[in-house]
Amino acid sequence: DAMVIQNPRYQVTQFGKPVTLSCSQTLNHNVMYWYQQKSSQAPKLLFHYYDKDFNNEADTPDNFQSRRPNTSFCFLDIRSPGLGDAAMYLCATSRDPSRPPDTQYFGPGTRLTVL
Amino acid sequence: GQNIDQPTEMTATEGAIVQINCTYQTSGFNGLFWYQQHAGEAPTFLSYNVLDGLEEKGRFSSFLSRSKGYSYLLLKELQMKDSASYLCAVMDSNYQLIWGAGTKLIIKP
Lengths: 115, 109
What we know:
The complex is a heterodimer. Chain A is mainly β. Chain A has strands at residues 4-7, 10-13, 19-25, 31-37, 44-50, 53-56, 64-67, 73-78, 87-94, 105-106, 110-114. Chain A is built from no helices and 11 strands. The mean pLDDT of chain A is 94. The radius of gyration of chain B is 13 Å and the shape is globular. Chain A binds chain B through residues 40-43, 45, 88, 90, 97-98, 100-109, 111, and chain B through 4, 8, 30-31, 33, 40-45, 48, 50, 85, 87, 91, 95-97, 99-102, 104.
């Protein structure tokens, strides 16, 4: 089955210790997104890739970086996690937003805890 | 600014019908999505509306009025497994998805 996979499902890190979250997809979609979602809040878009073109949201802190080495994989690096970065991190993919309907398909998420 | 409004929480009874409303103010409109999100899990796609009217999909229906900036999700024959958050999201003129905070639906026996 075509899908979006995220690893790990749960990540515990220490304050200031770098962490990398990974996402892979078998849907062959052009676009990959990283969202941060805190309890009872809307998902907040951090950045997205359209193919190799990187698009950073204006209010995404510099502490968050991303890499997309190929079509299938995308990584979220948090260079120095703070307590406020504890959240669910969601990876999503879509085919092409300029060709609606462009449904976003989500991975199961990574729950990040910062101690 | 862009804004999506949904009720924070609703309660309904198993077997009943519930309507979850969503109003939006966005820069342009390229469609409205409804997603279901169970606690601790990722959102899953439910429906898409781009033209005015009702889209029916089994027990779930979604309605759109573009002139009023309004949509609703209608859930019939509620089951306990329908307990979840329901997120409304609008694609704006830049093809960005603007998300609501979600409506937590509690189903009681």
